[in-house]
Amino acid sequence: xxxxLRIALAGLGTVGTGVIRLIETNCDMIAARSGRxxxxxxxxxxxxxxxxxxxxxxxxxxxxxxxxxGRSDVDVxxxxxxxxxxxxxxxxxxxxxxxxxxxxxxxxxxxxxxxELAELAAIKAAPFAFxxxxxxxxxxxxxxxxxxxxxxxxxxxxxxxxxCNYVLSEMERTGADFDEMLVAAQDKGYAEADPAFDIEGxxxxxxxxxxxxxxxxxxxxxEAVRTEGITHVRASDIAxxxxxxxxxxxxxxxxxxxxxxxxxxxxxxxxCLVPFRHPLAAVTGPTNAVVAEGDFSGRLLxxxxxxxxxxxxxxxxxxxxxxxxxxxxxxxxxxxxxLRQCAPADPGQREGSDYIRFTVADKPGVLAxxxxxxxxxxxxxxxxxxxxxxxxxxxxxVAMVTHEGPERCVTKALALLExxxxxxxxxxxxxxxxx
Length: 435
Ligand SMILES: NC(=O)c1ccc[n+]([C@@H]2O[C@H](COP(=O)([O-])OP(=O)(O)OC[C@H]3O[C@@H](n4cnc5c(N)ncnc54)[C@H](O)[C@@H]3O)[C@@H](O)[C@H]2O)c1
Ligand SMILES: N[C@@H](CCO)C(=O)O
Ligand code: NA
Description:
binds sodium ion; 26% strand; binds nicotinamide-adenine-dinucleotide; ACT-like_dom_sf; binds L-homoserine; HDH; Rossmann fold; alpha/beta; NADP
């Protein structure tokens, strides 16, 4: 059998220990499929003597993980530390600069610096792969890059954060509050080191920016992702959505709008109402799902575990197998220098229906004020429900669903209501996902 692919592993937390367990458990099968063994030679993390439930005695311990990039006995550096900048980025640059392969699960770093790293990898002819960075164990990077390579895609969207999906679907199942369910998601190891990245939608935005680049052949533009998290979603919104035939999911969506002259890219992450009949409505717990619509393939659904040690390790080792086979090509669907720069699209042009929840003072004239703002902004109301007094000190909750129309009209209506003394809290708008 050929010489082993020798790897150095930086970071021995949830994913790092998962990778060790997977390589040890399936070593013979991996060697047979790769045509050569995959051998861990060196490991590094913050604390050497911590009990991680894996035996590290056959690997060299490296105190300063940056030293991995310079080791002559290492072919590929695997970074499972995290953080968009800092030591992870220093290691990525050093490893690629030294001509070594580089594999990472770090979507924050790829979203911010993926283009720079891909350019460096191309110059050095070094493999660079990040399947685990998007939707954990789901092979969606490979699926879009290779499986849909012959298609023009018009939309890519999905559930990209396991923590948020767990929190929302558990709120739906139990009727419990947001805070309680977030603690449960953290306990299960789904959340990022800083859970604000999950619940504010930033983690999903990182993944969406990467997916859009792969699917559309555009340059990664994380800064242009319009991002809204789930912290304002109440148990009462979920109950209201249920009564109307929807579930609430945090959806990341990217689409290419073409006005005939130029293409513009719309990238958004926000809580949406998903019709019961839509496949994303059945996605519960930490599961992720990505829908890609190709002009020849039609609608494709990729679904599976988006977080957790085993599924994420599965994606990391799949990248290593690709490298061991000598098949790791460019990380995007086109060479990095051929990715197109696309200006952001105007979200106001979106045509659709929205769920809008107001928290208002319980007194005469309030509904008249809201509906007048809708009329003046050109928003047509399909249904409106007022429920009894809410938790907000005597305020009531008014939820409405609008008829399809341009989003800029809803934005204008809310601007007309801004500062109204009748509003006890900022309104929450959630778009209704179209089939
Ligand atoms: N946990 C998941 O389900 C999951 C899924 C997909 C992607 N990821 C990504 O994988 C990466 C790792 O995530 P995790 O959940 O395993 O994290 P973790 O916090 O469990 O582990 C991080 C590891 O890195 C080490 N580390 C951190 N800072 C370091 C430093 N400055 N120097 C040396 N070592 C350092 C820690 O000691 C620890 O061993 C992150 O980029 C994360 O976004 C995680
Ligand atoms: N914190 C992430 C881990 C996987 O990227 C999630 O909840 O989906
Ligand atoms: Na993946």
